[in-house]
Specification:
Layout: E1 3-7, E2 10-13, E3 18-25, H1 28-31, E4 33-39, E5 46-51, E6 57-59, E7 67-72, E8 77-82, E9 91-98, E10 108-113
Parallel strand pairs: 2-10
Antiparallel strand pairs: 1-3, 3-8, 4-5, 4-9, 5-6, 7-8, 9-10
């Protein structure tokens, strides 16, 4: 059984920072690239950052230079450091494999006030 538990969201002013964490159980973490996704109401879920099992990263253009994804293989945890946050970053953030598995966590809400 795969479990993905996201945490670290909250309310922050524009320009502020948050660090999201995702604890993964099961084999999903060790054999897959992992990513952070977000889905605003009425929009499709989008992949904003990806990290391979070897540590290579890439980012959506909208977050490049502001967000940093990392992973701790010993803890089966993936992180998303979000700096210079903007109101348009407001939404629920999820982690999953890339491409995504059928298992989704509850997500963590990020709200950026202007």
């Amino acid at each position: 059984q795969v479990q993905l538990v996201e945490s670290g969201g909250g309310l922050v002013q524009a320009g502020g920072s948050l660090r999201l964490s995702c604890a993964a159980s099961g084999s999903i973490f060790s054999i897959n690239a992992m990513g952070w996704y977000r889905q605003a109401p009425g929009n499709q879920r989008e992949l904003v950052a990806r990290i391979t099992s070897g540590g290579s990263t890439d980012y959506a253009g909208s977050v490049k230079g502001r967000f940093t994804i990392s992973r701790d293989n010993a803890k089966n945890t993936v992180y998303l450091q979000m700096n210079s946050l903007k109101p348009e970053d407001t939404t629920v953030y999820y982690c999953n494999a890339v491409p995504p598995s059928k298992y989704w966590g509850q997500g963590t809400q990020v709200t950026v006030s202007s």
